[in-house]
Amino acid sequence: MIEMSDSVFPVPSDLASRAHVDNAKYLEMYKRSVDDPDGFWGEHGKRVDWMKPYTKVKNTSYDHHNVSIKWFEDGTLNVSANCVDRHLETRGDQPAIIWEGDDPSEHKVITYKQLHHEVNVFANVLHAQGVKKGDRVTIYLPMIPEAAYAMLACARIGAIHSIVFGGFSPDSLAQRIDSCQSNCVITADEGLRGGRKVPLKANVDKATEKAPVNSVIVVKRTGGEITMKDGRDVWYHEEADRVSDHCQPVEMNAEDPLFILYTSGSTGQPKGVVHTTGGYLVYASMTHQYVFDYQEGDIYWCTADVGWVTGHSYIVYGPLANGATTLMFEGVPTYPGPDRFWEVCDKHNVTIFYTAPTAIRALMGAGDDHVKKHSLKSLRLLGSVGEPINPEAWTWYYNVVGQGRCPIVDTWWQTETGGILITPLPGATDLKPGSATRPFFGVQPAIVDAEGKVLDGATEGNLVMLDSWPGQMRTVYGDHERFVQTYFSTYKGMYFTGDGCRRDTDGYYWITGRVDDVINVSGHRMGTAEVESALVSHPKVSEAAVVGYPHDIKGQGIYAYVTLMDGEEPTDALKKELVTHVRAEIGPIASPDLIQFAPGLPKTRSGKIMRRILRKIAEDSFDSLGDTSTLADPAVVDDLIDNRQNRA
Ligand code: WT7
Asked: What is the pTM of this model?
């Protein structure tokens, strides 16, 4: 439940004058961006270097008979040239990436010159492995600099990368390799997180039994024992020694795909979200500059993993396109101790820090002393992303981490949006704890009721976008119809976000969370249907229903109702077995927090599971169940309540 806090934190006046935009400028630019999108984006599109300049800017249609989204469609460019080569002359010796290892004794600084060398070499290794323009390359790497090199190398030769988060299981990896028909996987021997090893190469070996590939490029990270398959697997460092360090960036059309990123929805298998080259880069770099008020000399740290869209847009593409110094962290917030984030901020003089509410809540729980023993004087701006931030966590972040002097940008966006859509701008927007505040340039949010009627003024309903912005996803890989169905069919002529939202009397937006069967666990999106299908794939399970429930640290926890096959014993040991099973099927992020064995699930007479009731019981608010008379067997509800796991 999102609280609407009344407090307002005005823009500090010195910041308003120093920042890229103050409020008057925001209002003026915003107005132009929606009144004249062609003029506005035609001008701002020039922030990236084009090989052949565009003459057309916006060509988009939300008509559900013909959804088509094109930006800068006749321009050509190369993303890696924009993120690397164009900075060589002015900032070749400036750090591009500061890499901080899992172990605090390990770090590396990679200048733009070095980045250029590494990306060229990696691109040539890909060529040598037979990867060509348009091919899909699956990246399953830990948070090491090679992840950024690999992404930029793909972009350089026009290959489309599909990054799979290192926490996903072999099955999930196989499904993502198979779905985009990728023939090459880039991985590491093992990953390292919080002192523990992650068997990445072994997972690739399992995945490729189901989804075979021609080549596996292995980066040596830990030196751990792995097996290499002859004729398929190569060590990256050996191949790198054999190739030249010059690779000409390929000329790409603005609408050529840059990457695919799989994300969960309310039904079926994860969707391959497709982002393209020109509009995406313009939008990622522009939002990075304005939202974080990025200035020359900033040390910018986004704590996400490159396996998620945040890592794509705000660790790699946005910051590097802007010639920034971006910090990349291999580890976890609590290793070796709960002050790791703050130690790293001091060690590298971080000025802009961007993380997720779940991390903030966890670190808040560890106590203020862990923060206070570090100076944190370098920090000037804080950011939040991934889920609604509760005012309590916001206030702690502001006062204790930011020492009351750093604005917080609460950035709302999605894998599908490519970049931030609703957010404060630090020099322009007065802050309200818990509100993502106002739309970015060119973004036209609206709130609709269940019938799709646009609601005015202070109101609450479902969040849609009325028109396109350059960073918007273009299609679902290989399934444009699913793209149309998922996003443009609920409300005709509008992009449906899947989120609920309130707007207050100041026009500020307050995201209330997903309104579909997607849950948000520690800022990670999970389809309840995926967890259900993992559960029912266990031989002892006959039926399962999964819902979210409020969780102090994770935002939402996973609550699973499980009906067993006839004759199976509902034991604690079996609960553990089911958790292990889901982890193996999907990955640790999908582990159910609570499992309730249910002899029956509440169903309508036509057999549809009534999730509303299951959600209420999981929230432990079963006194407001509403009408249960339409249930086929209303008595199942009493059993569910009696045996609920989430007793207040
Ligand atoms: C969903 C998108 C965008 C990168 C990380 C997640 C929720 C995201 C906020 C925010 C409230 C937020 C929404 C959205 N969400 N940011 N600042 N306030 N909710 O990307 O996995 O595609 O998830 O995350 O529910 O729909 P994602």
From this structure: 0.96
